Amino acid sequence: SMAFQPDQCWYLERVPIHMEGPAYLLQNAKEIVSFGRRVTTNDKVCNGPNVSRNHLKFVRCGNPLDWQTVRWSVMDLGGMVGTFVNTSKIDPNNPFGLNCGDLIGVGCPE
Question: Is the model's pTM score more than 0.90?
Answer without folding.
Answer: no
